[in-house]
Design goal:
By secondary structure, the chain is α+β, with helices and mostly antiparallel strands. About 35% of the residues lie in helices and about 30% in strands. The radius of gyration is 33 Å and the shape is elongated.
Length: about 425
């Protein structure tokens, strides 16, 4: 069957009606169901041992509907030549014997329409559609329209081509409007299915405790350090997990935020009593933070503890596993911060860990230091995502471990400005602090 317009026929041997095979609402319903079923088919060790973000990204990439977008600026003439045209079924022509072919000279023009997106979407019927849909051949990332005519009416050719292109673009626009809400809710649907199945697997194996490691706050914790908690709100394949899943202690996000809040309150202490910190070095400042942590939490916060490939400054352990690591560094420029991040990551040897980098600044231009800190993390080879600032001097990032891209590290960089000099006026004994 061909679509005739005047003496023009858009036709190619493999041309087919577009947007006429599957209803859009049925496609959305099917993809939702298949996405949930795909979660159930993931091997349990992979589900339990892989970052939820990696699983969600892989399944979203598989089941989202990527409606094609026409690249109008790239449309071109793919072929033009003279061909014989069989006109035996043309009622406007006098043909003596319509039982056999009757050829006349004609001119064929093939127009290629490049697009970006999933070619399978050309089979989906939009909510509002025509009973006479446009026809074309779908080849790789192009639609091919063929016009064969016996006349030389260039305006008619342009008019018919434009009419067909507009029909295709209209169908694609209606499809995009229909699939937008589905694509937006798909990550949440998959994440919820993953969480439900993971919870069932852990419960059935008696491993519920692996989901979080609460740190018990001391009943006699002094309130001086208490501060309000600010809670942070190509094809992708699932990573391969070689070893069976083993439950490991995990620091809960709430406890992680409490630890950061305790350390952040130290900045206020330094501001109120600068003379006490003027001569402190890296080790003394680290001890200052350890005192605050041990006053607030039960558990081992120790200094200079050897761990994996090196030693780190502040460490919290549970069940012989590290659940929190912090490194203390004086600001010495952008290169030193990149090295400090690499050093901290080299200490980490567990799954889904949380860490912090404490940066002490003794220069006079603290604003410039903060501007540099805001960009230095993004250039590191293990950088994954910027999670935003908790406040003006606290930066939150997602990294992966150097040798295991599927193992994520939540890293918080906290900057502290401490006194740099003491001035002794000649006529006064009272000191001022820069």
């Amino acid at each position: 069957m061909v679509n005739e317009v005047g003496n023009s026929v858009f036709r190619i041997m493999e041309a087919r009606p577009l947007f006429s095979k599957h209803g859009i609402f049925r496609v959305i319903q099917t993809n939702q169901q298949q996405a949930q079923e795909a979660v159930q088919q993931i091997p349990s060790d992979t589900l339990l041992g892989t970052s939820p973000d990696d699983i969600v990204n892989a399944l979203v990439d598989r089941f989202r509907l990527d409606v094609p977008v026409i690249q109008e600026a790239a449309i071109y003439i793919a072929d033009t030549c003279e061909v014989p045209l069989d006109v035996r079924n043309d009622p406007r022509r006098m043909v003596s014997d319509r039982s056999k072919p009757c050829y006349v000279p004609a001119h064929r023009t093939v127009i290629a329409i490049p697009f970006e997106g999933d070619p399978a979407c050309f089979d989906i019927e939009p909510p509002i559609h025509s009973l006479n849909p446009p026809r074309a051949m779908v080849q790789d990332r192009e639609l091919l329209l063929t016009d064969t005519r016996t006349g030389n009416d260039a305006e008619a050719l342009k008019r018919d081509y434009t009419r067909t292109l507009d029909a295709i673009k209209g169908c694609l626009q209606r499809l995009a409007e229909s699939v937008g809400p589905f694509n937006a809710t798909l990550p949440g649907l998959i994440r919820s299915a993953c969480q439900d199945r993971k919870q069932k697997l852990l419960d059935s194996a008696g491993m519920t405790a692996a989901l979080g490691l609460p740190i018990k706050r001391r009943a006699d914790a002094p309130s001086a350090y208490t501060v309000p908690v600010q809670r942070k709100h190509p094809r992708i394949e699932l990573p391969t997990v070689d070893a069976p899943f083993q439950p490991e202690p995990v620091l809960s996000t709430a406890d992680y935020d409490d630890i950061l809040a305790t350390m952040r309150s130290m900045a206020r202490v330094m501001e109120l009593s600068p003379v006490a910190f003027l001569e402190m070095g890296e080790q003394d400042l680290r001890t200052h933070f350890l005192v605050a942590l041990n006053a607030q939490f039960e558990g081992g916060a120790t200094g200079e503890t050897f761990n994996f490939q090196g030693r780190t400054d502040i460490l919290i352990r549970a069940n012989n596993r590290n659940v929190f690591v912090a490194e203390c560094k004086f600001w010495a420029g952008e290169v030193s911060m990149d090295e400090a991040i690499s050093q901290l990551l080299s200490y980490l040897s567990w799954r889904d860990t949380k860490a912090a980098l404490l940066v002490f600044n003794r220069s006079r231009d603290f604003s410039r230091v903060l501007e540099t800190l805001a960009t230095v993390a993004g250039t590191h080879p293990c950088f994954e995502k910027d999670l935003g600032r908790k406040d003006e001097t606290t930066f939150s990032y997602l990294f992966h471990q150097p040798n295991e891209p599927t193992r994520k590290v939540l890293l918080t960089v906290m900057a502290f400005d401490i006194p740099t000099a003491v001035l002794q006026p000649s006529n006064r004994k009272r000191k001022r602090y820069a």
